[in-house]
Structures
1.
Amino acid sequence: MDLRVSHLLPTYARADLAFERGQGAWLTATDGMRFLDFAGGVAVNCLGHAHPALVAALSEQAGRLWHISNLYRIPEAERLAERLCAASFADLVFFCNSGAEAMEGAVKIARKYHTVSGRPERYRAITFEGAFHGRTLAMLAAGGQAKHLDGFGPPVAGFDQVPFGDIDAVKRALSPETAAILVEPIQGEGGVRVAPPGFLRALRELCDAHGLLLVFDEVQTGIGRTGTFFAYERFGVAPDVMAVAKGLGGGFPVGAVLATAEAGKGMTIGAHGSTFGGNPLAMAVGNAVLDVVLAPGFLENVQEKALLFKQRLAGIKDRHPGVIGEVRGEGLLIGLAAAVPNDQLVAALRSETLLTVGAGENVVRLLPPLIVEDAEIAAAIERIDRAATRLEQAAANNATRETIFG
């Protein structure tokens, strides 16, 4: 087979780069070149590559049982659900396979809650500009971005978008049909935009006053990414329903919807389902991830690494203001607001063997594994410094040519 000819749908602008193995924060390409992975599968590989606890859990479970169906009890799922509830606001968990599925489940829970509460007219959700909730038709409508909606027919009804952080706009959007407010505490794809101070608390108060459900999308921010197990802890505001995925499986596909008993009261037998959700393989890995992330001192260490990284990045920003305009984010969800096109910065960093990922608002995301070492942070800083220097030199050379040749 000619590997130069791909039969994959061309829906990704893939870099001409492939990997054969990984270890911790490092990836080895098929040509033997080593890369420092600060993309992390877009916030998925929270414990890096080939973490021994995850490898052991997956290998052991693979030798016993892969799939059995939710027609029967799955002890591994019951254990993981119990642990997630013990570590969060939630009483109930539904397992699925991805962040988009988790978000779909969260919206269904919110709509069904009002139906069984005698308010079936309440089905709409207030969402926010810049949001990204997944690629299903409903979640594209929730995100509301024209570039994602184009060509797929009329958007799914039921979502009202307002500017992120604008509580007055939220109040104006409220209607007798509003069922929920759906928000990312930190917009990852939207540019690592952190909710303004007091905004989430104001949303909580609005929901309580109007009998609405507050739904958080923590697909990207959950499982230690921000230095707390869930990002909502940093804001002191608990939701009624929350979607998680990405880091929950540390690289194995798994998503979950968490809910209070009250919010989930409408989800009775037959209300929702998933063929693969909660399968023994995914649950074994999810429990192994929690073994590591919830161990004493782990999240405190993440906070220390995040502080160190941000301090070093602040120095880089000061040295290269023509390339990096701002350092933003929480924990190890860090955004560099670029002063050059962000795809140029991503490419320059990749040429320095540092993998990153772009985001909205011309931002480059840095998503190192939560187990990143000081030496790896130092290595990343060196690569960012070199990439920024090369971009500055290229800009200066272009300016010189324009001056000479007009």
2.
Amino acid sequence: MTLCSESLSAVTTTVGTAEDARRLAQAVLERRLAACVQVEAITSHYRWEGALHEDAEWRLVCKTVPQAVQGLMELLQAQHPYTLPQLVVQPLQASAAYADWVRQETQGAW
């Protein structure tokens, strides 16, 4: 497998319902801000406003190009149901073929 010399990015957020996860994933894909959005059911443990919480959440992992990250973050912030959403960006290395596909699917978004 040949790794692509140009990196990709993964933008991750969480929401409280499967409906919100679907809505955000569709908005991201319709605007071509990511090539793929993976949605996973998780359990989150956290402290909020001085109290410990344990909640079911859905994690969205958006695979995109670095040039689209700013627009993707802005869209997620604007449409997110949480007051303080988790918005995390991580660099990715991928196979050349997968990276080419991500670039092709996000073309024109940035």
3.
Amino acid sequence: MSYNKKMEIKQKAQGMNPYIVARNLDQIAAKSSKNIYESLVIISKRSNQISTDLKKELNAKLDEFASTTDTLEEIHENKEQIEISKFYERLPNPSIIALNEFMGSELSWKYKEDYTEDVDILLS
């Protein structure tokens, strides 16, 4: 995923409702061959992608502040690091982001050639 896609995810996520909302299972299933389990697999795989990307990005940003010798004063004075952490904590859960992408038809997926249960998720 490119840098622009990561920025889009964070920008979209900031406007999302971070709370769990009841959903109509028939609408979710209708997005993928009328099969709720297939839809949930697609959403969960995309959620894992989002989670991994956000975690890598957060760790890269926090590594900039890492030092080998931290004194107590340095730990309390690092407000930028605290703000970065709070920003990522306020983002909605990756599952909520993935569900919104799925319901908004922002995801495309394909099956591997052997038609096993594995699904590859692609951003459209």
4.
Amino acid sequence: MDEVQHGIAAAYDKGIMRFLTDNHIRLNITPTSNILLGRVEKLKEHPISLLYRNGVDVTINSDDVLMFDSDVSKEYLRLYESGCLSAEELDDIRENGLKSIEEIIT
């Protein structure tokens, strides 16, 4: 499976998003890390929603649990509470993250 760690800048270029989708490349995204490192200003505006809604395969992950005080459960909850993604969208991301790329393609 082809994956990219982080990769949120892809949300600002439709051509790159299309490339990721067409080539079944998954982005493993760490929202809290993106906020604390200044890559994203507000969680509600995190580009994961734009990526997901444009068909890019994304997973939600944590980055350095001790440094960022986060785990995967907290990441999902924060995205939901901020209004960035709906419960249905988060559940779809969760289910897709458990599948292999071959299952997603077919």
